[in-house]
Design goal:
Structural class: mainly beta
Shape: globular
Radius of gyration: 27 Å
Helix content: 10-25%
């Protein structure tokens, strides 16, 4: 049995000697609300060991309410589709002899369209000819040869009427350098003794994309970081694995909401990055080398903290030409000064933002100093040491107003900071479960405006009127009341107007369950509609002159799966911004992790 040992010398822990109510504010520095920080240095070597055993939790799984059998029926249908698509051993009994429908793969595709740099797009060129069972089976065998990496199915609608069941599916076909997407509308017959049989399949919105290049992207993580002794032991182990070794005293966060930031830490012109870790594991600073690899300098830089750190920003806070660092820990926002060579000194902590999630920087009042906006998801309770859902649950689910209080921290220069939330009007609607925020001068009046993505309810769009903010999200139709996780600004159509993309949550199971009559039957219809919206995916708003066009919530723009961060980027340098969405979530305990 292989064993791992991680030895970390001289780890640093914070000891916040002042509570938020007893701020140790320097008298000779006006407009400064930072408190002093005391570092506790442990001279004893700290050992974290791992014996290599797999930890497989086995929680009780309670059966769903029988009235919501749509979930089970949807799972059964997906299973049947996968059996039907098994070209090596097609079960003919799964397809009704009276089957009539479309071919899975079109006989003809419309003229290929060159997207950019070797990317080509085809769309459905068929007249959707109705075929019988034999032709349908032939198309299954044909598509398995083109897309040899498999087919993914997402069931979004299931409607049962006696022995007839109608279902709608989002389908992804995958191969090495080619993929296709379609919508299937299926009809099934369920009879006693014979089970489900496919009676009809209608193909819609088929499109196929391929690349002439061998690879578009390649994972370089191990090549860049693999030579660091801590890489395999710290980053190639799951949170569940660490949770089996670290006590709650260490404040290990199980949700994985720990980000990273990119900046030039040592002024050599190359991008470096800082990784925020869960409590009991050290944060890491990696410096990029000439050959593109990166080395760990966490201890030398003074940044190998063990506090649960949610996010960080490289930003020049004192206008001296180097990038300083701001870190959002569970206790407070820590401001660190860079000496210009990649060594950082903590100048103090802002205490009135407990349990923050993310940060964004901008000069909101145009005084030449960058200010920091902090999103506080669930404020928590300091006395009970609980936070997030451990302290409270969002109420009401579709429009929760019992979240944390976000904070605008004004930069006065010389590492002096103060809370400017109330005086700027950002205290309005400031009780949501905020995940992320992003600045942009959407109305082109010369000052940055602010969009805040909130979980469990409406988002905010704060227009900046000379340093005072007004929430106009609902007026613009971009309040997007869903499971807001991220927000990004860009210009998709190159019309010089800023477009807005909001990362939410797409859940096929959620769409199926919320469609049945018994779902939240005690609630008003408007509430049910609002709750269903939470599963409909990401939102795109096309910017016009001081207003937005709401892009329809249809596949594929909104289907970012369970989205977290999202961003605009011109990935292939063709002059058009693309969209990148990170997604995924735990769907259950398995021997092999599903993320």
């Amino acid at each position: 049995m292989r064993g791992y040992i991680l030895i970390i010398l001289l780890p640093l822990f914070f000891n916040f000697s002042c509570s938020p109510l007893e701020k140790n504010v320097s008298n000779d520095k006006k407009n400064n609300e930072l408190v002093s920080l005391e570092f506790i240095r442990k001279d004893k070597q700290e050992r974290i060991s791992r014996d290599g055993q797999k930890i497989i939790p086995s929680p009780e799984i309670q059966k769903e309410n029988k009235e919501l059998s749509t979930l089970e029926l949807g799972s059964e249908i997906e299973h049947k589709i996968k059996e039907i698509l098994d070209a090596k051993q097609i079960d003919l009994n799964l397809i009704d002899d009276s089957f009539q429908g479309n071919l899975i793969y079109p006989k003809a595709l419309k003229k290929s369209e060159l997207l950019s740099q070797g990317l080509k797009l085809w769309t459905d060129g068929d007249q959707l000819e109705v075929v019988t069972k034999i032709d349908f089976l032939s198309s299954i065998r044909a598509i398995s040869k083109v897309f040899d990496k498999g087919i993914n199915i997402k069931t979004v609608d299931v409607l049962q009427n006696g022995q007839t069941i109608k279902s709608r599916h989002l389908v992804d076909f995958l191969s090495y350098n080619r993929e296709a997407h379609a919508v299937w509308k299926c009809e099934w017959i369920k009879s006693i003794g014979e089970g489900l049989k496919l009676f009809s399949l209608i193909r819609e919105d088929f499109n196929e994309i391929a690349t002439e290049r061998d690879k578009l992207f390649e994972d370089q993580t191990e090549k860049i970081l693999g030579n660091n002794p801590n890489f395999d032991i710290q980053f190639n182990q799951s949170i569940s694995s660490w949770a089996g070794q670290i006590t709650r005293v260490g404040d290990l966060a199980m949700t994985g909401h720990n980000g990273l930031s990119i900046g030039d830490a040592n002024g050599d012109g190359r991008d470096d990055f800082y990784v925020c870790e869960a409590g009991s594991l050290p944060n890491r600073l990696y410096l990029q080398q000439e050959d593109g690899t990166a080395i760990d300098v966490s201890a030398e830089s003074g940044l190998d903290w063990y506090e649960d750190s949610r996010s960080s920003l490289f930003v020049d806070l004192d206008n001296d030409g180097d990038q300083d660092l701001v870190v959002a820990t569970i206790a407070m926002i820590v401001f660190c000064e860079n000496n210009g060579e990649g060594v950082f000194r903590a100048r103090g902590g802002f205490p009135n933002a407990q349990y923050p999630f993310s940060m964004s920087a901008s000069d909101y009042d145009l005084d030449g100093m960058l200010d920091i906006y902090v999103c506080v998801y669930g404020e928590g309770d300091i006395e009970s040491n609980s936070r997030g859902f451990g302290d409270r649950i969002p109420v009401p689910f579709h429009s929760a107003s019992n979240g944390g209080n976000n904070v605008l921290i004004k930069n006065h220069g010389e590492f002096r900071f103060s809370d400017a939330t109330q005086e700027t009007g950002l205290n309005y609607q400031n009780n949501r479960w905020s995940f992320a925020a992003s600045w942009e001068d959407f109305d082109k009046d010369g000052d940055p405006d602010l969009y805040v993505a909130n979980d469990f309810g409406s988002n905010s769009m704060y227009r900046n009127d000379g340093g005072v903010f007004v929430d106009i999200a609902k007026d613009l139709g971009i309040d997007d009341p869903g499971a807001g996780m991220s927000v990004s600004w860009g210009d998709l159509n190159n019309d010089a107007n800023f477009d807005l993309y909001v990362g939410n949550m797409f859940s096929s199971a959620g769409l199926r369950i919320s469609a049945v009559d018994s779902f939240a039957s005690h609630q008003d219809k408007s509430v049910v509609t609002a709750m269903r919206y939470f599963a409909e995916g990401n939102s795109l708003f096309i910017g016009e002159s001081k207003k937005f066009e709401i892009w329809p919530k249809d596949f594929p723009v909104s289907m970012g799966r369970w989205s977290w961060s999202s961003g605009f980027a011109d990935l292939n340098n063709d002059g058009w911004e693309d969209l990148v969405v990170s997604n995924g979530y735990i769907t259950g305990w398995r021997e092999k992790p599903d993320l």
